[in-house]
Queue: 2 jobs
Job 1
Amino acid sequence: MTWLCPGLITIEVERAPGTATVVVTGELDLVTMPLLADQLALISRDQPERLVFDLAGTSFIDCGSARLIAGAGRWLPAGRPPVIRRPSRCVRRVLELTGLSACCEIEE
Amino acid sequence: MNVSVHDVRHALNELGKLRFGEMRVEEAMHRIVETTHTIFSVDGAGLMLADIDHHLLNAAVSDERMRHIEELQIHHQEGPCIAAFEDKELVRAEDLTQEERWPAFCQHAVARGIRALLASPIPYNQDAVGVVTVISEERRPWSAEAELALLAFTDLAALLIATMLIGEQQTELAAQLQAALNSRAIIEQAKGVLIGRHGLTAHAAYAQLRAQARAERRKLAIVSAELVRDAIQAQDRAAVED
């Protein structure tokens, strides 16, 4: 029998030379914001040239978390904003409404 | 009628100055709802929170018609706020007379002077705990600015709810919300059992639980707890037989 754990979010960071990829599975809201901020602080120590958020498994995002993601990676080279990979419909809508889609690159 | 981004910023700034921690949470929710009503120039705004049975109950309203929405959704078990809550998505309905998603709800809502509606789920720790809604008595094509403004007010409501839960305020509302959060875990587990057993989608599993609770006139959390207990016992028996 399959048991599904309720209320679980995972934020995993995959590191490759020059690139950090943050994979979020679950929902990003007020409660998870500190978890995400912690991971971003760790990544900022390495200052990778490319920062990717894989949000295919992110079923919800609030405006605060969207701001956190779009504003991440201040060290990134000019013209290389954070990449949002495969955003779900909900994530895409929030990024569009908040105008934050202009601060990142959407990748399918 | 358009929502101005400038007005929204101003309103959020004003609300941001309120010291929610020192305020009764009901009072703070009322302020949010009244401000939402004014900013949108709508005919009503409301903040609903889930109870232990996952029914959406009004916590603060700016118009009596929000009471109809609460009652109609509980009675018909369908409606835009329920959809926003369950799918955790902003739900827009421009004209309830043309709406096909919630036929029973719409018919009665229109008769009570509710024509258009925008509903946004309030997220908290991996699930929705309530919904912020605005209503209009006229048909209304909601603009992107309106959607954004509602998202902003929803974030504020989430912040307020977090303050309430962390501050352990001893109010009826805080108790209702805490009970809803507690029951959520067991309902999620019961959904997991049904998904594993019958290969249902999460949505279908939830619908089945609700239908069973309704048919047996029992609480959703109780039906869920029994299902989980039976599943665990069956698993234990199977382990012994092995």
Job 2
Amino acid sequence: MTLRNRELLNLIVVGMLTALGFASVYIARQSVVSTASLSYAAFFFGLYLVAHLVARYAVPYADPYLLPLAALLTAIGITEIYRINPDDAFRQGVWIIIAVAVFAGTLLALRRDYRRLESYKYIFGLTAIGLLVLPALPGLGTTVNGARLWIHFGSLQFQPGELAKLCLIVFLAGYLREKREVLAQGRLKDFGPLLVIWGGAMLVLVETNDLGSGLLYYGIFLAMLYVATGRLLYTTIGLALFLGGSYFVYTQIAHVHDRVTIWLHPWTDHKVYCALNGQMALRQDCASFQLVKSLYSIAAGGFGGTGLGKETVSTSGGHPLIPSLNTDFIYSALAQGLGLIGISAVVLVFMVFVLRGMRTALLADDGFSKLLAAGLTFGFALQTFIIVGGVLRIIPLTGITFPFVSYGGSSVVANFVLLAGLLLVSNRANAPRGA
Amino acid sequence: MNRQITKLAVASLILLAALIVGTTYWQTWASAGLAEKQDNAIQRVAQFRIKRGVIRAADGTLLATNVRRRVGGQTLYFRRYPTGRLFAQLVGYSTQVRSRAGLEQSQNAYLTSSNANLGTLLNKTIDKLKGVTITGNDLILSVRPGLQRIAMAQLAGKCGAAVVMNPKTGKVYALASQPTYDPNLVERHFNKIQAIRGPCQPAAPLLNRATNGLFTPGSTFKVVTATAALNSHRFTPDSTFEDPGYCTEYGKKVSNAASPDGPAEAFGTVTFAEGLQHSINSVFCNIGKSIGAGMILNYMKRFGFYKDPALETPNDEKAPSGLYNNGRLFFPSHPSTQVDPGRMAFGQERLAVTPLQMAMVASTVANGGVAMQPSVLNRVVDGKGKTIVRVEPKKLGRVMSPTTAHEINSMMVSAVQSGTGTAAQIPGIQVAGKTGTAETGNSGINTTWFITFAPADNPKVAVAVTLENQHGFGGTTAAPIAKVLLQAVLNQGSKKR
């Protein structure tokens, strides 16, 4: 069977799973949702068929699992979003159409040789910085939950950090490919760029007030530096610098300090000062309200879950019980619906995606491609860890998105570009020699 | 670079595997703990899909039942309380907006059949797989609605509490607390409950005064002091005391309390027994100084003070009795220097006790010196009518020898026959009792008490009555109410025969 036929077969399986998911929500909420929900599955299957056809034309030798896995994750996400709020699901559906279009455009534009991106690496680097600075501009940036990660044009909101992440990875892949031998020798002056990027990460952290984005960009940088140089020492020093810097930021910036306090002590027995309303309240009723409610949701899932569509997310009067459920906390909603068995399977899907991505990096035969694929894949894994780890109280909670699953346009578009990147690298690595 | 990529792949997988570990922690290990959190609205709302078990009184009267309603395509079961205000604080409520209280809270596991009973678990899992509504287990209580109605009527218009229990089994027959509220109003009209006022500040209708109200015990505490003095063989009922009308403590005179018959008086030479019969403070003050606060504290603990009583209500709705310092239970490390033994002996100092605890004191004397665990739950019955739990009487422990119990029993009989508690006399039945009139710090305003049991030779019922903000005395305000409650139980018992 050819790679693309295998991909098609996988997509058919995903299509059936999507239909099952929507049917489950439909049955559970018959009186609330309409039969139109069933057409969603068919619609998405059609959409992915288009993506598949583009892939068949542009990247015939690419990995046959990446697209179906991404499709599955998007389907899981939109099913849950649909269950929480059908209107949001419609908007997310529109964003997925745009994302697939961008995906197709990327594949078609770069199908001959994506490696020419390497020559524009500094443009990518500057773009990344520009995108990161955008939310700080007055009149353009929006503060959501104390973190400045968003920009808005009229009613349209957009998180430029998502695209900045991709630009950064392309820049690092090009830059590190060029400098890796020099860097590996470890002369003191070569630590310059490392320090500059460390400073940049700190700046992002201070400017956006968000520990998660800083950790994400800097983590990608350290990982790619390690892959390029093979020197674990750099990563260790870099990590130590980051932790030191974060500690400083923690002591200096109240918002970051609060996030850490919430992380360490979400429940209090006695009332503490509540900054939201200026009164005394238990912390679980105030600052850590979101985190605690989301943990209750996860715990409510138990081993087998309540079943998709049967999650308790609001009172019988319709009052929501968990805030930001379809964005930051969609993992908690899924964990309640699917239970430990189901949500572990979802995390396994992420793991398989990461394995396929890393395999692509291993098979690629030039430094740029290897670094690009490894960087994209690690960025995907780290982002998943940072958001879900925050929800699970493994690390402090931050406001970045859950790749492919959570509600949000910029995120889904960026992740489809990431997918396109991996497919391009994979296509080249698997292509017969001389083709 | 492949070596590094492999390692990076492993690192990525470890990061993601940590997520599965984290999720496992919350969904298995921590799940039960989170489900019990008071602010866990998800758990609360989700449980409205369960056809909650009903709560019944001993005679089968429904105290809590369900109303089925379709909301958003789901069948939900909302609570209704047919007896309204009657058992408000004991039964409590189960609502979506204001959580749960009372037995609805503490017995939630049984009522929603999420108790870790293998049979229940199996039934529940089968129901869940079949998509059938989960049915909770029913509670059958030991309370008697008729008696409770009398108790609530006796307390109406006052702030106070009454506990009626079987001294031999610890089963509670009535647990009344006024002011009360209608639990049917909690979900939608909570403001009406907040607007309730009473002859005390705050009226606190939600407070279960019988188990969670802390009051100065006054002279009822003399029963505890007497137990310590007699059971330790430091005194006998015939020990004599010289009462000059006061007791000297730390160089200051502490006068005897006034009585309904007039101001404080000096009794002259009296026996221990007469000291209890007439509730003479100077006698007990001297006993306290003689045996010491440490000894009294030891006996308090034997009676169950310093611990939450075993009653099935939620822990945060019952208080341990004992010495309190700045609102917190006070465990003196050096009682001889930290506690005033004379004042403690006649029930002042920093003592704060619940009516339930004082009912337990009376019951223990009535039961020949053995304290029983108080209990309000008789049986738990599953959806098919099968009894899955039967709550048998449990001993708390022996507090005093049968001889001491008999001696105190007789003294309490004298107190009712010709002492401070004559208002509790019932023709043809020997009643034992002890009055209490505790100073509140506001001159002329007392917390009044009566603890009693009857018939003295074969006690069938023990009662404690407490009233707040009284101008009168225990013997004139609380004793008549206790008498009505004794009669209600004893008459019903004789009618059956």
